[in-house]
Amino acid sequence: MLLHDWLEAHASEQPDRVALVCDSRRYSYRDIDTSAHRLAATLQAHGVRRGDRVALYLENCVEAVVSIFAVLKAGAVFMPVNPQVKADKLRYLLIDSGARALISHGALGDIVSTALGDAASVALVILTDCGESALAGREVVPYDRAVSEPAHSLQPPPAIDQDLASIIYTSGSTGEPKGVMLSHLNMTSAATSISTYLGLRGEDIIFNVLPLAFDYGLYQVLMASRVGASVVLHRSLAFPIRILEAMARERITVLPFVPTAFSMVLNVSSLKSFDLSCLRLVTNTAAALSEAHIRAIRAAFPQAELFSMYGLTECKRVTYLPPDQLDVRPLSVGRGMPNEEVWLVDENGKRLPNGSVGELVVRGSNVMRGYWNKPQQTAQRLKPGDIPGEMYLYTGDIFRTDAQGYLYFVARKDDIIKSRGEKVSPREVENVLYRLDGILEVAVIGVPDPVLGQAVKAFVVLKPGCELTAREIIRFCLGHLESFMAPKHVEFVPQLPRTDTGKISKRGLG
Amino acid sequence: MQDVKGTVRQYILQNFLMGDMGVQLQDDQSFLDHHIIDSTGFIELVTFLEATWNIQVQDEDMIPENLDSLDNIERFVRSKT
C-alpha cells in the first residue's frame, strides 16, 4: 500500500466526487489525480528519481495538494515547507535535505531566488503564476505547463511501502530543524488509525485552514483521500468572518482546529448567525484545550463531538480522548490510538504502572524512520525495542496516567515552546537575535498567553552604548523567522542570571 | 485627513518589514499573499487603525476587501471617518 493509492482508487471508482474546494473552485478526484499524474511525468522528465526530495514551498492551495500526490507518483519524497519560512531557513532546508526540485509561487520568487543561491542540489524550479523564466541560474517551469499534457509519459517507479514518502521538518532544541523521515507505511498507518477512531466517512466535508506544511493540516488531505471525503481548503486565519462564511456555505461536517484558531473564531460576535448545523466532528491537537475552551466549543457547536488529541510529527498522532470521556476527564488527551501501543517509562527506561509520571514511549507502524542525516538525534528518540530490528519512539514528553491509564500532559523534557500550536525552538530564535548588532546576550522562553497558548518572550542585554527598541528586535525576527517564532514580548535587562558554571540560566525568568 | 496610505506604509515598514523589502510594497499588493502580515499581525494593524483614526473596526469589517492592501485600507478608513 502506497500513500497515493487511495487517491488513485477514488479517482477510478468515483471520479466526479469533489475532492477539494479551494477559493470557491471545486476539483474532483479525477481532476486532482490527472493533474498529479501529469506533474509527476514532468518531474520525472526533468530528472527527479525515486527517493529524490522535492520541496513544496506552497500556501494551502490546489497546487499544493496536486504536488504532494505528484511527488509520490514519481516515487520521490515530498518535503512540505511552511510558506512563512524566510530565505535563510529555506536555504538551510534545501541544503540539508539535498532537495532535487522545488515547487512554489511566483509571488515568493524573491525569497526562492535568495534561498537557491548555494543550494546546489536543486536542479528544477516550478512556480505558479509565472511565465517562462530563470531563477538563480535554474530553468523555471511554469506550473500551468507542468500540469498540461506532458511530452513524456510517466514511468511508474517500483516503489514499495518501505520507501520514504515525506520528510517533515520540525524544530529541535539544538536550534537546527530536523527532518522527520516518514515512509509510506508510516503515513498510511497513521492515516488509517486516525480516520478509523474519528469515524471519517466518504460523505464528510472537512474544513482545513491549518497549513499543509503542518502534519495536522497535511493529514486532513491524506485521510480524506482514504475515505473519499472532500476537503475545503482555506489559506489563513486572518479573516475569521471569511472562515465562518466558507464553513456555512460548504456545509462542513469536520473541523480540525488548534486552540488559537478556536479563540479567533469563537470570539466573532456574529458567530450564531452562521448555520453550522452540519458540523458533526471537532478535533483539537497541537496544544491542550482549557476547560473554558472546551465549554465554549461545546456551546458554539452543541451537536458536534469534540476529540482532544495529542501527537508529534515523529509518529503523527499518539492519543485521542473519546468524546464520551470529555466530561469524566476533560484535561486528559486520552489513550493510544488503534494499532499502536503507548506506555510511560522512568529515567532508567523501566515501564511504569498506571498512576505514574514518566516519559511517554510509542510503538507502532506510525513511528518515523529517524531524522534525516542526524544519526545522533535519531538515537536519542528511537531506541531498540524487544523484537530485533524494531525501534520505539521516546517522545521526550512527560505524562502522568490515572488509574485507568488515561494520559495527562505534564511537561516537555526540553525547553521547546508551543506557540499557536507550533513548536518554537528557543535556540533558533536566540541564534537569529545574536545576529542583530547591539545585542550582547539573549535568553528566550515561553510565557503563558490566553490566545497563543505560549507567547515567545526574549530577555535582552544590550551592548554598552547600543540602543534598540523592542519593536526593532521583533521586526528583525519577523524578517528572519516564521512569524509564530518572533517574540511577542521583549524585556531589556542589565544582565541574565547564571548557573554556578557560568551558563545562562533561564530559571526565574518569566 | 492625513495621508492614509503613507501613514500605514510607515507603520508597516517600522513594524513588519525589513530593510529594502519595504521598497517593493505596492499600493495594491496583498499583505497576505506576500507574507507581509499574518493573522496576528492583522490584529495589531487593526489596533493601529483604530487608535490613529479614532474608528471602531467591527468583526464584520475584518475582511480582505478592507484590510489586505494599502489601497483597501485607504478606502476603508475614508469610509469610516
Model description:
The complex is a heterodimer of chains A (510) and B (81). Chain A has 510 residues and is α/β, with parallel strands linked by helices. Chain A is built from 14 helices and 28 strands. In chain A, the strands form seven sheets. In chain A, strands 4-3-5-6-8-7 form a six-stranded mixed β-sheet, sandwiched between helices. A five-stranded mixed β-sheet of chain A has the order 13-14-15-16-17, sandwiched between helices. In chain A, strand 27, helix 14 and strand 28 form a beta-alpha-beta unit. Chain B is globular and about 30 Å long. Chain B is built from four helices and no strands. In chain B, helix 1 packs across helix 4. Chain B is an all-alpha fold and 81 residues long. At the A-B interface, helix 9 and helix 14 of A face helix 2 of B.
List the helices and strands and how they pair.
The complex is a heterodimer of chains A (510) and B (81).
Chain A: H1 5-13, E1 18-22, E2 25-28, H2 29-45, E3 53-57, H3 62-73, E4 77-81, H4 87-97, E5 101-105, H5 109-116, E6 124-128, E7 133-135, E8 138-142, H6 143-146, E9 164-170, E10 178-183, H7 184-198, E11 205-208, H8 215-227, E12 230-233, H9 240-249, E13 254-257, H10 259-266, E14 281-284, H11 291-300, E15 305-310, E16 319-321, E17 335-336, E18 340-345, E19 357-364, E20 370-371, H12 375-381, E21 382-384, E22 391-401, E23 407-412, E24 417-419, E25 422-424, H13 426-433, E26 439-449, E27 453-462, H14 470-480, E28 489-492
Parallel strand pairs in A: 1-12, 3-4, 3-5, 5-6, 6-8, 11-12, 13-14, 14-15, 27-28
Antiparallel strand pairs in A: 1-2, 7-8, 9-10, 10-20, 15-16, 16-17, 18-19, 19-22, 21-22, 22-23, 24-25, 26-27
Helix pairs in contact in A: 1-2, 2-3, 4-5, 7-8, 10-11
Chain B: H1 4-15, H2 39-53, H3 64-67, H4 70-80
